[in-house]
Amino acid sequence: MLEVKNYLCLMSTPEAILKEVFGYDEFRPKQKEIIDHILDKRDGLVLMPTGGGKSICFQIPGLMFEGLTLVISPLISLMKDQVEALKANGIAAAYYNSSLSSNEETDVRSLVESKSLKFLYVSPERLIGGGIPWLKDDDISFVAIDEAHCVSMWGHDFRPEYTQLKLIRERWSHCPFVAFTATADKVTRKDIVEQLGLRSPKTFVSSFDRKNLSLKVRPQMTQKEKLKEIISFINRRPHQAGIIYCLSRKETEALAANLATAGIDAEAYHAGFSSDVRSKVQEDFINDRTQVICATIAFGMGIDKSNVRWVMHYNMPKNIEGYYQEIGRAGRDGLPSDTVLYFSMKDIVMLSKFIEDSGQKELNKTKLDRMLQYAEATTCRRRVLLSYFGEYMKEDCGNCDICEHPPVSFDGTQLTQMALSAAVRTKEKVATVMLVNILRGSANSEVLANEYDKIKTYGVGKMVSFREWKHYIVQMLNQGLFELAYDEGFSLKVTKAAKEVLLGQKAIQLTKVPEEVPQDEIKAAKKRPSKAISENDVLFEKLRALRKRIASEAKVPPYQVFNDATLRDMVQIKPTNFERFLDVSGVGEFKANKYAHDFLAEIAGYLKTQKKPSDTFYKTLELFHKGLSPKQIAIDRDLQVTTIYSHLANLYIDGRLQTLEGLVEEDSIKLVRSVMPQIEEKSKLRPYYDALNEQVPYHEIRLALAYLEKTGELEVAQ
Description:
The chain is an alpha/beta fold and 718 residues long. It has 4 domains: 4-205, 3-Layer(aba) Sandwich (Rossmann fold), CATH 3.40.50; 213-404, 3-Layer(aba) Sandwich (Rossmann fold), CATH 3.40.50.300; 410-511, Arc Repressor Mutant, subunit A (Orthogonal Bundle); 535-609, HRDC domain (DNA polymerase, domain 1), CATH 1.10.150.80. 48% of the residues lie in helices and 11% in strands. It has 35 helices and 17 strands. It has a 7-stranded parallel β-sheet, sandwiched between helices. Strands 8-13-12-9-11-10 form a 6-stranded parallel β-sheet, with helices on both faces. Strands 14-17 form a two-stranded antiparallel ribbon. The radius of gyration is 28 Å and the shape is globular.
């Protein structure tokens, strides 16, 4: 392990530590500003999205302060994960919680007393309960409070123990106290400051926009349709880890069993399992032994697994804060990742029942309404999501289902009048399913027993499918035309606003139901031609396998060796010596000294097996480096200029040409990216040329695709 004094005497600047310890050349937005504020020994509140780099904001100051940094964290698994990550970078760290044996507690105490530690992670319960009497006031130089939203009753993970941390603030009055959280609205932020007793704190709010996450919503699907679509989705991503969040424990087990039957490596996780079972499921997932976890919201907060490539919600979440935090567990390494939300009327009814039984009905009802507005959005979803946190985008994101496939609106006034009239004629006593059955003219026993087949609106909407009616009624709820009567079996009540519609004084716009999943989706997926595996993919898989072997031997999660983004950068650079290895993003000196030999050997072995580019490629590259333009090279070599551009694109993908600057405009890349979702054969140029109305030349399309292939966007789109 590197000695602590090395950090103090040799790495006196945040920039030096960022590069030499963590292996990054530049800070992300807000990080440097936050670090400087902490180094000035001032209190603060930091809001930064999951995967935004919160840890570095307190770890770098902690390395620069002379004493010990105390990190207060709510979960044992979270402490363990972060401590192991620090150790992986050669930093002296430990945790002190109820999971330790008496001998382990003694070891931690000895490390603190000998001033051998830089970071000590503790739970609020252990700290407040007087469980660390040997921790002296002058031991601590800085206190970081992670997951700080737990201190607020307005937050979504309220922990009563956190409210007593104000006493700790008074005890260590000489230290800066900084609270960190990924999600907190304005009310929660104010409460955090008051509850923790922060002194004239500065609040830092980073952008909540996780551009690498795609956002998709699938409404009103049957259980059978959902399962087929989920199986197909996972089968198209055979090596990608993912989490599926469910509302109930029963659903997690049933879904995991169904996925396992389909040959998918899936496990269930919920609070009803014993701690040993939960620990094993979590360990298998973070160590890449299990691909998919079907879980309640109890899962995920305690891990920092950077290579979760997708997150699904099997049901509607109860609020946007929880939803945002859960989807944030995908793509923490910055690589493209997917999020999918399924929801139905059944979810809304179930969540509404939970709200009725909660202690904050009005607050929780408002939050559910906002969640429903997001799910039913007809404009860019990212705009809707970010606006909840007070952040507003000037342009649509281009990376959500609304942007890629804008919903089709139509005049739904007549359909709305049918639904409202039917509700009125039943004296507003029926819930959604019964209302749809009446509109469709169903002859089931309950309809007939209540003589709903006698009312005037019985069967007036039989031309509309059951799924469509449910979709439209949710929109009517969202537009304030219906209200759910929680205390009357969730019957639909017609609002005052609806009367104008019934009287023909107001028109209503509805959106059509998204296209249904094909009934034979799984078979269709199997029939698709397999995508050709590129050389870069082959090397990435070799490095991934090496990483897993190293991690297994060291008994640490693979992502703590290197995350996927670092492996991808390694593939692009293909370092062949130690100095070049240090150029890889995410490789600091400690990890380079520890792992360079094995990874360089793997890369060298791979390069030996590869055919060198033909002489024609080398000739093009040689002339290009001499300063000749593609057109001049074509003339010099008596070749078509399109051939030269093809050479340059291949050289860029192989990593032999470092940049496309000056060859293709950024606007052209954006245009190609914008139409990529609608192109079926992603590698062919003509479909892009046609889709862009012949406005982007073929050679620029070819170079743009080379860029998108290298960033991984083309692979994700296929």
